[in-house]
Design goal:
Elements: E1 13-17, H1 27-34, E2 39-46, H2 57-76, E3 81-86, H3 88-99, E4 103-107, H4 112-127, E5 131-135, H5 157-166, H6 216-230, H7 234-237, H8 250-254, H9 260-267, H10 276-298, H11 320-328, H12 334-346, H13 351-364, H14 369-379, H15 385-396, H16 411-418, H17 423-428, H18 448-453, H19 469-488
Parallel strand pairs: 1-2, 1-4, 2-3, 4-5
Bound molecules: flavin-adenine dinucleotide.
Flavin-adenine dinucleotide is lined by residues 238, 246-250, 253-254, 285-286, 288-289, 292, 351, 354-355, 358, 376, 380, 382-384, 387-388, 391-392, 395.
Length: 489
């Protein structure tokens, strides 16, 4: 329906929400709300969404709830969210024609495909006399501005971190706009339920809402809980998967339900208290996120191409049975299986365990890191294309500032070091729950009578190891070594 654009009609502006589904500290929304025109808030389901914007199934679940929460917050502020689908340029052009909007506001994105779409739209809108205003907000430091003395991007974390801290003066986070003037008539939008973002048959995400509250309110509550409870002891506790020792803010950050500036700012008072070292350690992790995005900005092919091109010659194993056992959490290594099942049940996996399962896939099973990257992309609620690619390449040894290829985690020793009493394994692999501590990470070494007493039959109630770690390790070392020799010769 076209709006009656006559003399009394006040032309609106458009705010295009993307991965910034929040009202607070949202520069684009704030600027639009200040301009004294009605505001039309939209979210576009982009057809042919670029890789970086493409949604995995678990994150689609999150998006559904996050959009519903954003719509409610906008309603509380006297406005609402309009859902539209299509090529974003066509969608905007049509909406501008329909409403006579004079400007479009958005927060910038940093993957190459998103940048290309936005640049094209900006120039086309301007040619038509429509203003296009873009803002920062997804990152604390915009990529392209933080460079070495030689004007190159950083590919090693520590100097990046130093440069980041030296030049960083975070602005105070903005409050939510007091009012967001609504148009007299809202343009028609689509129904969220028709987007089919939620799984139905089967509803494998049934358990997700026990763990998560998508949306800005959920994000702020999570930050508050973390600052009041878990951050004390973060430095040590962040490596123990059985504890709630980390913030679990990653899915909220991935959807932009709160800004990294706000988190950074909220940790400032801790530096005056006894928790300064915990807060510093936590901030360092936030800067890893920045580092990933700066890398992604400069190496847009990072999710599909080995940063170290020597790895292109690597002959990966394509054994489907092994991949399927890894995906289902049935490898016979309890810490790996607990991690993969945590992922399946909750859409999340603890960072230490992500490293262990990734190392197992790449080095014990010799399966290409990109296969794991794709599985995570579909199953994590916090999927973030830069963080995911950076970390997979890091574990494989082919990435920026990566772990050396000969560093191969022993899944038993990792389990014993970081889940000493086996609480994490018992939670996610209940069939092993009655095993004594000594064997919880190595059931295949437990005496038969002990297994019997714990109700475990290897190969029946719980799998025997799909590979012997020591042999797999030797095979991996030989394979990786021959790779470096081939390339050296
Ligand atoms: P906290 O410890 O509370 O950290 C706070 C924030 O810092 C996180 O929310 C995250 O934004 C950032 N952060 C923490 N660790 C890292 C890291 N290693 N690299 C980059 N940023 C970090 N993180 C994602 O957000 N999305 C992904 O898709 C993703 N894929 C990963 C794949 C692999 C193989 C590995 C090893 C790690 C991956 N990570 C990913 C990084 C890390 O595991 C998660 O960010 C972290 O577990 C999220 O939990 P948290 O919010 O409680 O973290």
């Amino acid at each position: 329906m076209k709006m009656p654009i006559n003399e009394s009609y006040v032309r609106p502006v458009i705010v295009w929400f993307r991965r910034d589904l929040r009202l607070k500290d949202n520069l684009a929304l704030h600027a639009a709300a200040e301009c004294r025109q009605p505001v039309i808030c939209i979210y576009v389901r982009e057809h042919g969404a670029p890789h970086a914007g493409a949604l995995g199934a678990a994150q689609a679940w999150w998006l559904h709830h996050s959009l519903a929460a954003l719509d409610q917050s906008l309603k509380d502020a006297g406005n609402r969210l309009i859902l539209l689908s299509g090529d974003p340029h066509d969608v905007l052009e049509h909406l501008i024609e329909q409403t006579g909007a004079t400007a479009v506001y958005w927060n910038r994105r940093y993957a190459a495909d998103g940048i290309a779409v936005d640049t094209r739209i900006k120039s086309r809108l301007r040619k038509k006399g429509v203003d296009a205003h873009s803002f920062a907000g997804f990152l604390m430091h915009e990529p392209g501005k933080l460079l070495t003395k030689q004007d190159r991007h950083y590919s090693v974390f520590t100097p990046f971190w130093r440069a980041f801290e030296a030049g960083f003066h975070p602005l105070d986070p903005l409050p939510a706009p007091k009012t967001i003037a609504a148009p007299d008539t809202f343009p028609a939008g689509e129904a969220l339920d028709h987007w089919n973002l939620l799984p139905k048959k089967p509803n494998w995400a049934r358990g997700f809402s026990d763990h998560w509250t998508p949306g800005e309110k959920g994000a702020l509550a999570r930050l508050d809980d973390f600052l009041h409870e878990a951050i004390a002891g973060y430095k040590q506790g962040r490596d123990q998967p059985a504890k709630s020792g980390t913030s679990r803010l990653s899915p909220h950050l991935a959807m932009g339900e709160l800004s990294p500036h706000r988190i950074w700012h909220a940790t400032a008072p801790l530096f005056d208290a006894s928790q300064g070292h915990d807060a510093a350690s936590f901030r360092r992790e936030l800067v890893w996120r920045e580092f990933s995005w700066h890398m992604m900005f400069h190496r847009p092919d990072m999710a599909s191409v080995n940063l170290d091109r020597r790895f292109d010659a690597f002959e990966w194993d394509t054994e489907k049975k092994h991949l399927s056992a890894w995906q289902r959490g049935m490898t016979g290594y309890p810490i790996v299986d607990a991690g993969m099942r945590e992922l399946w049940q909750t859409g999340f996996m603890h960072n230490r365990v992500r490293m262990i399962v990734a190392s197992f896939l790449i080095k014990d099973l010799l399966i290409d890191w990109r296969v794991g990257e794709r599985w995570f992309r579909d199953t994590l609620v916090d999927i973030d294309c830069a963080n995911n690619a950076m970390n997979w390449q890091w574990v494989a040894g082919c990435g920026a500032d990566a772990s050396p290829w000969f560093r191969i985690f022993n899944p038993v020793k990792q389990g014993e070091a970081f889940d000493a009493d086996g609480a994490y394994v018992r939670r996610h692999c209940p069939e092993l729950a009655r095993l004594p501590e000594k064997f919880i990470h190595r059931p295949f070494e437990a005496p038969l009578n002990m297994l019997e007493e714990a109700g475990v039959t290897l190969g029946k109630t719980y799998p025997a190891p799909i590979v012997a770690h020591d042999k797999a390790r030797d095979r991996a070392l030989r394979a990786f070594k021959s790779l470096s020799k081939t390339n050296a010769s």
